[in-house]
Known about the structure:
alpha/beta, eight-stranded parallel β-barrel, five-stranded parallel β-sheet
Amino acid sequence: MGKKSVMTGLPHEVSFHNECKNIYFYFICNENEAAFKKILYICYCMMPLGRVVSCFMNLSHINKKHYCIMANNKEKLFSDFPHVSTQEWMDKITVDLKGADFEKKLVWRTNEGFKVKPFYRQEDLEGLKTTEGLPGQFPFIRGNKANDNTWFIRQNMRVTDAAEANKKALDLLNRGVDSLGFHVEAKALSAEFIETLLKDICCDCIELNFSTCQRHTLELAELLTAYFAKKGYDPERIYGSLRFDPIGKMMQKGRDVSPLISSAHQIMKAMEAWPHFRTVAVDSIQLNNAGAYIYQELGYALTWGNEYMHRLIEAGASVDEAARSIKFNFGISSNYFMEIAKFRAARMLWADIVKAYGPQSDESCKMAIHAETSTFNLTLFDAHVNLLRTQTEAMSAAIAGVDSITVSPFDKAYETPDDFSERIARNQQLLLKEEAHLNRIVDPAGGSYYIENLTASIAKQAWELFLAVEDEGGMVSAVQNDSVQKAVNQSNKARHEAVSKRKEVLLGTNQYPNFSEMSNGKTPLEHRCACGDNAEDTPLVKLETARAASEFEDLRLQTERSGKRPKAFMLTIGNLAMRQARAQFSCNFLACAGYQVIDNLGFPSVEEGIKAALEANADIVVLCSSDDEYAEYAIPAYQALDGRAMFIVAGAPACMEDLKAAGIENFIHVRCNVLDTLKEYNHKLGIN
Length: 688
């Protein structure tokens, strides 16, 4: 086939066998020429900027009629088709909306502070900085690498016994992992400890990452330097990082440890013989895990990194030394396209920040990114859904071109991950590499009208936040003033509120729960820092790290622990379509609290329905019918039940006030705060 093809995404030039300047389209079609042109037009509409290397279309019953179209740089493709303007599309949409408001129906108002249109066109790329440059070139929006998109598959472990950790690490390296993260206790640090931990590990073949107590990171750096030198490793082949991040610790522990930042330069100097070993970390992942919005995580990460840049240069480091010592550890949320855009915007903005300091080389402007799937959206119930969440998260980070990824095991929210869950987490990344081949294509999102605009919008919001924090005096001042923690905690609160109202959905928790699932002894497992707390400074506000599902889980566990699992009986009557829809809605609603739900096909009368409910020993009876029929059925059903069980009407009918006047007080519908309603029901049922 000649030279290896390199696809770098769109909108920049695509090469086929490198030197080929033409783009070929091969089709096999069994229809007439008119049908063939329609197929071409559909393909054209689906391809960003109308560029592609090759397409193969095999239809059934091939009649061996071959078409080959060659388009060179001077020939306009698909000239037979009329141009459709944006206004024509808008006119068509307006007609289809039948008078509904375009902004309200189709424009997405994001939590990031900007609006997303329902469609984008090539004209939306005009003037965007995001389309500048090629992969591997400043400002690195399209990735740090030009020839491939490979990343390190990283697994972290907490080291309590060096020999056991070494044994596990060697096993992991034979199972697809090529990056190790060790968290070591400060009291265990010694030359012998490092020797045991890294025994038989080929340190110049993988990436090594270490963390320990912030006050002992310099000691760890000196031990690693001595070990690498003793083993005779080539400095150019050692890659890794130290997780030294006093700013992150301030937000995590609520203590002002900012004086420790002065150690950053010493740690950097201790590792200066190893140019690819980064010593200072920006752990913005903790913002992600605290429920921060995407623009917040990025904006704060930038000013966080800039604070360290300034402090290192002030301490005597060159711009290039300072920039190359910093590593960013981002979280990945389930907002798939936004996360792709976030990482692209991050590289661009960080490159601009470093460039403003005047580095000797543009290589110093590259942002080193480690990405880790979020814990904020992990759930205790229906935990295998976590696999779906972390898979899409890892995929968005891989497509965005990060340097390394850690996938959290699906059971991390409620237990220490076991061998099975860790294996699945590794295989999730291996699948992206070995089966999806995402490591072979650089910036596949490049040129997408949608993602390019998302990238520009997120960059704008993050940059405004960056400037606001800088005006406040920088990241340390902002953390000392509690403004960062308060802003993120407010986002945490807002997202919990959104989850309680199902505006933010967690499958298996606040929507479509597994009706028969029990916790079986599972309880939420919250992370606790193992470092000693010797700081004497005035306590700061800490980040609130409660997971999005935590309140629903507490509610459901409360129901289980009461020893009484309420039965909710669906009294379905009247209009078939409406009673089925409302019964399904009600079952999902009440099962979120762990109630046993009993659905029914329908009853010919209210009396028969109430009789069946009482025979089933129901604690709750939910009337499911149409709005029009509630005026007929609700009051007789309520009176027939006569207080022997809680009575609920599914819906918010126009006659609601009349029903309330008759004594009916419980209604469930899409505008309910699900969490608050279920808490109220638990209280009424004596479950506290």
